């Protein structure tokens, strides 16, 4: 599936409509571009990003598959970059003012933003340096200017079993508000077949994993479980990578507290409203427990995911 080189909008529409299609759950069509499944409405914005975005050396791009800790990573980076010189007073904390998905928008989804952030017109205006933004796009389709400049990338991913359970809750809350949940067994099969937004999950992870092996100073590769297990060590590493080292333990503790699930979940800006059409801000915050999959997955489902992961990750040195 090649990309149209700057065609007009109609040609692009036709090109998108001719991409291979499949059904995600029984909820929506998705289409295959560059080996990854996309919501059709996001292909053109993704292509626009790939073609027209000009990275600056100071830029920081966050990247992740859905439901792997994106919200937490956005909050942590905001806190590290914007909160360092504020008083303890909550009112100065950028996290109390807006949901993290407003302050760090996901580039290809901005068309669904209920509140476009004028500072986020990344194609025309220059934001404060460093510019901080996020994408769920796979590494393959990132703009060359991101790959070739000194722009830094922070990637986060998560154990596939917790990811699938988190996805299942999330899409049930969006697509099936007044219905029974989608059968979990089918959701697991769908995840393992790779036919879901930004899937296959395993390929998404492997693309960034491969790159971080080659260029560890360019891409910081984080795991949700590591952040849970050694929050101080991981946040220190993140702050160092962002060029804003956290000097003492008290500072690290403050960042962790400000970005904790319990605190964020209970802030007014996150209890109410919606930054993306159809997605309540509250739906980004659930339990945040490592191993929550044990409360949901049958042995067969567990096996299917483990075997898929084993096949995909074999020889890569990656364990999730
Ligand atoms: P669970 O569904 O397992 O609870 P994403 O932000 O990529 O959509 O991922 C959502 C997952 O991250 C959810 O996992 C959610 O509860 C968890 N999460 C959200 N904010 C968090 C935070 N501040 N700390 C830890 N986990 C968080």
Which descriptors apply to this entry?
7 strands; 10% strand; 3-stranded antiparallel beta sheet; 320 residues; alpha/beta; binds adenosine-3'-5'-diphosphate
Description:
With 320 residues, the protein is an alpha/beta fold. It has 15 helices and 7 strands. It has helices spanning 9-17, 40-52, 70-82, 94-97, 100-103, 144-148, 160-175, 184-193, 201-214, 224-229, 231-241, 249-258, 261-265, 268-271, 299-313; strands at 21-24, 28-33, 36-38, 60-63, 132-135, 152-157, 219-223. The strands form 2 sheets. The chain has a 4-stranded parallel sheet, sandwiched between helices. Strand 2 and strand 3 (36-38) form a beta hairpin. Helix 8 packs parallel to helix 15 and helix 11 (231-241) packs across helix 12. The protein is globular. The two termini are 30 Å apart. Adenosine-3'-5'-diphosphate is lined by residues 64, 66-72, 75, 162, 166, 169, 259-261, 264, 284-288, 292.
> Element order, helices and strands?
HEEEHEHHHEHEHHHEHHHHHH
Radius of gyration: 19 Å
Q: Number of helix segments?
A: 15
Low-pLDDT stretches are none
| Overall form | globular
How many beta strands in the DSSP annotation?
7
Bound molecules: adenosine-3'-5'-diphosphate
Would you kindly provide a brief summary of this structure?
With 320 residues, the protein is of the alpha/beta class. It has 15 helices and seven strands. The strands form two sheets. Strands 5-4-6-7 form a four-stranded parallel β-sheet, sandwiched between helices. Strands 1-2-3 form a three-stranded antiparallel β-sheet.
């Amino acid at each position: 599936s090649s990309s149209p080189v700057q065609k007009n909008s109609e040609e692009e529409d036709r090109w998108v409509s001719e991409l291979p299609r499949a059904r995600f759950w029984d909820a929506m069509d998705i289409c295959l571009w560059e080996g990854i499944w996309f919501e059709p409405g996001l292909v053109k914005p993704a292509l626009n990003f790939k073609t027209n975005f000009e990275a600056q050396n100071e830029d920081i791009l966050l990247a992740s598959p859905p439901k792997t800790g994106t919200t937490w990573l956005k909050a942590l980076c905001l806190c590290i970059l914007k909160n360092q010189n504020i008083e303890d007073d909550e009112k100065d904390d950028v996290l109390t003012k807006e949901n993290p998905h407003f302050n760090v928008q996901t580039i290809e989804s901005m068309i669904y933003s209920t509140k476009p952030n004028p500072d986020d017109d990344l194609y025309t205006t220059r934001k404060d340096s460093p510019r901080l933004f996020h994408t769920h796009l796979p590494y393959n389709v990132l703009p060359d200017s991101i790959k070739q400049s000194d722009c830094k990338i922070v990637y986060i991913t998560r154990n596939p079993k917790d990811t699938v359970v988190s996805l299942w809750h999330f899409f049930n809350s969006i697509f099936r508000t007044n219905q029974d949940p989608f059968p979990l067994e089918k959701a697991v099969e769908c995840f393992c077949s790779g036919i879901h937004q930004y899937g296959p999950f395993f390929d998404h992870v492997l693309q960034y994993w491969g790159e971080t092996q080659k260029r560890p100073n360019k891409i910081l590769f984080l795991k949700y479980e590591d952040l849970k297990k050694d929050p101080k060590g991981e946040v220190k590493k993140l702050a160092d990578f962002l060029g804003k080292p956290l000097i003492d333990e008290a500072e690290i503790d403050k960042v962790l507290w400000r970005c904790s699930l319990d605190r964020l979940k209970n802030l007014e800006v996150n209890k109410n409203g919606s930054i993306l059409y159809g997605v309540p801000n509250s739906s980004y915050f659930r339990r945040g427990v490592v191993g929550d999959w044990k409360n949901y997955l049958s042995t067969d489902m567990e096996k299917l995911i483990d075997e898929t992961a084993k096949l995909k990750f074999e020889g890569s040195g990656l364990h999730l």
